[in-house]
Specification:
The complex is a heterodimer of chains A (293) and B (313). By secondary structure, chain A is mostly helical. Chain A has one domain: Orthogonal Bundle (MetI-like fold). Chain A is built from 15 helices and no strands. Chain A is globular. Chain A starts with a helix and ends with a helix. Chain B folds into 2 domains: 45 residues; 230 residues, MetI-like fold, CATH 1.10.3720. Helix content of chain B is 73%, strand content 0%. Chain B contains 13 helices and no strands. Classes of the chains: A mainly alpha (293), B mainly alpha (313). Chains A and B meet through helix 1, helix 4, helix 5, helix 6 and helix 11 of A and helix 1, helix 3, helix 4, helix 5 and helix 7 of B.
Chain lengths: 293, 313
């Protein structure tokens, strides 16, 4: 009894002291994260704010961050219509969509071959594919351009799409994921007389939804953001994707900051919307590849 | 005896028929990806080397064979040396800062009692999903010397008049700052995943043994996080050596990127410009192989230096 009575105050004090230190760490950490989050978001908040303001407000000295009284959608209307972003937006969606679909198809089929079958040359082909992962795009862009010129694909949609329809990274990712699918599931289907294409499309693919979602996100964002290849392969205005349009239209509209911010917002908002909808897939997909890489 | 041998022969035959069937399906599933990889990556890399041995020009179309002269020129070309130096400076500056900051943030965020954790994770991840071209334009104006928000912010602390993108000293650091800003969330998410893979009992055991927070981090978290650190360093360095978009968008003046006195001319832009603006495809291909060699050497060095077996049982 006395023992407990003696111990209790010191134990309490330890606990209190400890939790206070812990509390301090938590509060400090929270403040650091707050500061960091402000740094992360402020540039984008300014972008959205400036995209709604007339130029005269955007370039005021000293700068103003928000001017709700002057907000209007005029910049968007001008960029979407007169500058032609409607067309460029469609081009970007079409190119990125086609590339995503093609990458999903080629990657999941190849991944299935590696994960399910034993065949001569399996290891060799796999290593060959993996080794192409190391090759930077800059090394192959010059020969690719010459090849596209030979195929009369310079300045066409096909020329933009073709080099991106297969990715060793995607094959690797699908293979890794499919190796985790229990074999008995597939064997049971085979014993029931299911054909191989049936097993692939009806059993394997539905089980791979998380990997497919992650790969689709990477493929689409990669193409949406791609600047270097379209810059090389595209000339005519009708084929500009959004990144090319952003860099080119500023040649005519130098210092039209308000229009540029409207254009940047047009690139940003759809992606943000999809991101907020499928956040879990985004972040878990990246964590997944990070751990497996 | 004879029947047994016959039965054996039949099963073997069946087995190999089954095997043959499997192999055929495998090749069928593999063929689209393999064909395109062959045509779009493996053949082009050989072709690229072939091009690099020529003085290759598209208009007018002529390409005399010149052996290794393009490679010898890379060693003498001051613009190449400058581009290599800028690229290395950018990488050596941006990657460690980004890693240190993102690790600290991940450690803070890994505390379960912290409020709004997922909210923060979302906030830090938004720049990651934003297109490089878009953010380059945003930061281009944030760095505007007269009315840009960066200088107005620095003004609160009495720092004035940095010309940022117009200054040969500050242009490249400005781009590095944007790269850190944009990549932070990505590294942080991977660090978080790595941290969550470390068994909680280890820290509890250390705590019982009297280890403080710092010791717990330095002797347990950090060594066990090694695979994650290696992964992030390697991918971040490869990505940084290939930087292109922000350098082009943020420092193009009258159609020519590279910034004030070529202070932001990076390797990829140098390759692009040489091949497609100055019509020297052979020299451009040789430069691309120089970049490739640089990436390979740096990656192998990193793996050598950082890969060590860590086993805590």
């Amino acid at each position: 009894m006395t023992e407990i009575a003696l111990q209790r105050p010191s134990a309490m004090a330890f606990l209190r002291r400890h939790s206070r230190a812990e509390l301090a760490v938590l509060v400090l950490g929270f403040l650091i994260l707050m500061l960091g989050a402000v740094w992360m978001l402020l540039p984008l908040v300014w972008m959205l704010s400036a995209s709604l303001m007339p130029l005269s407000e955007v370039i005021k000295v000293p700068p103003i961050w928000f001017a709700p009284a002057k907000y209007s959608l005029n910049n968007y209307i001008e960029v979407w219509g007169r500058v032609g972003f409607a067309r460029f937006f469609f081009n970007s969606v079409f190119v990125a969509g086609t590339i995503t679909a093609a990458q999903l198809l080629t990657s999941s089929m190849a991944g299935f071959a590696f994960a399910r079958y034993q065949f001569p040359g399996r290891m060799l082909i796999f290593i060959l594919i993996l080794s192409t992962m190391m090759i930077p795009f800059q090394v192959i862009m010059i020969p690719l351009f010459i090849m596209m010129a030979r195929l009369h694909m310079v300045n066409t949609y096909s020329g933009m799409i073709l080099p991106a329809i297969v990715t060793p990274f995607g094959i690797f990712m699908m293979r890794q994921f499919m190796l985790g699918v229990p074999k008995p599931l597939l064997e049971a289907a085979r014993i029931d007389g299911a054909s191989e294409p049936y097993i692939f499309t009806r059993i394997m693919l539905p089980l791979c939804k998380p990997a497919i979602a992650a790969l689709a996100i990477f493929a689409f964002l990669g193409s949406w953001d791609n600047f270097l290849w379209p810059l090389i392969i595209i000339n005519s205005k009708q084929l500009w994707t959004l990144p090319i349009a952003m860099s080119r239209f500023t040649e005519q509209y130098i210092s039209q900051t308000h229009l540029q911010m409207a254009g940047a917002s047009i690139m940003f908002l759809p992606v943000l919307f999809v991101f907020l909808l499928m956040q879990r897939n985004f972040i878990e997909g990246i964590a997944l590849t990070g751990l497996k890489g | 005896m004879a029947t047994a041998a016959k039965a054996f022969a039949i099963t073997r035959q069946r087995w190999s028929r089954q095997q043959r069937r499997e192999a055929l399906w495998a090749y069928a599933f593999l063929s689209p990806a393999f064909f395109f990889l062959l045509a779009l990556i493996m053949f082009p890399i050989l072709f690229a080397f072939w091009i690099s041995l020529h003085d290759w020009s598209l208009i007018p179309r002529h390409f005399p064979f010149i052996g290794l002269q393009n490679y010898l020129e890379t060693l003498r070309d001051p613009l190449t040396i400058k581009s290599l130096r800028n690229t290395l400076f950018y990488t050596v500056g941006a990657v460690p800062v980004s890693m240190a900051v993102s690790l600290i943030l991940a450690l803070i965020m890994n505390q379960e009692k912290l409020p709004f954790r997922t909210w923060f994770r979302t906030a830090y991840f938004i720049p990651v999903i934003t297109s490089w071209v878009a953010v380059s334009f945003v930061w281009l104006w944030l760095f505007e010397p007269r009315w840009g928000l960066v200088n107005s912010f620095l003004g609160w602390f009495g720092i004035t008049g940095i010309k940022w993108l117009a200054s040969p000293v500050w242009a490249l650091p400005a781009i590095m700052l944007v790269a850190v800003w944009k990549g932070l969330g990505y590294n942080m998410v991977i660090f978080l995943a790595g941290l969550q893979g470390i068994p909680r009992e280890m820290h509890e055991a250390a705590k019982i043994d009297g280890a403080n927070r710092w010791q717990s981090f330095w002797f347990i978290t950090f060594p066990l996080l090694n695979p994650t650190v290696v992964f992030i360093t390697v991918t971040a360095v490869i990505g940084s050596l290939q930087v292109f978009t922000p350098a082009v968008i943020m420092t193009t003046v009258q159609g020519e990127a590279g910034g004030p006195i070529n202070s932001t001319r990076v390797m990829v832009y140098h390759i692009y410009s040489t091949a497609f603006r100055y019509n020297r495809l052979g020299y451009g291909a040789a430069l691309a192989f120089v970049l490739f060699a640089l990436i390979l050497v740096v990656t192998l060095m990193q793996l050598r230096l950082t890969q060590r077996e860590v086993e805590y049982t």
